Amino acid sequence: MIGNDVIDIIQSRKESNWQRKGLLEKIFTAEEQLLINKALQPEIMVWLLWSMKEAAYKIYNRQTKIRSYFPQKLECSFRFQNDSYMSGTVICCGNRYYTKTNITNDCIHTIAVINPDHLKKVIEIEKKNISKDQYGIPFLTSVQSDSVKDVSVSNHGRFEKVVALSFNDCPLSEPD
């Protein structure tokens, strides 16, 4: 299973005031608030943590079919971090999700999976042959093999990311 979230940093500056009273307390755990307060770039830390939560939530939603707003139940932690890349985990209701995030001046993009080895198998794909089930969860259909694959779609501002897992025995795209 896979989830992803993309944040257009410029768009987020126009749409959201992350510094408004009570917002951080509503969305982030006490530990995450400490990370934000100690960060050299607190704005980037806010959107990094939010992106991790969103990507993991997409898997949780796929697993449980539960749609609810409970960002504090998604607890983020870091395994590795530098200025442009970060890996971590998100715990939600006893489930552990593994994340990797790429950070540029314009964009934060996080991918979440249920098995850390799957982070090596993530591919970006074109947004075609994608449908949604009755819960609004996207999937990729393959006409040739009559199969369905998990896919995650995210867009914000100028960016759209469509990702899936590629396994040798599971082709993800139709031949031209």
UniProtKB/TrEMBL annotation:
Keywords: Transferase. The keyword Transferase applies. Residues 2-97 form the 4'-phosphopantetheinyl transferase domain. Transmembrane segments: none annotated. The keyword Transit peptide does not apply. InterPro entries: 4-PPantetheinyl_Trfase_dom, 4-PPantetheinyl_Trfase_dom_sf. GO terms for molecular function: holo-[acyl-carrier-protein] synthase activity; magnesium ion binding. It comes from the Bacteria. This is 4'-phosphopantetheinyl transferase domain-containing protein. It comes from Flavobacterium flevense.
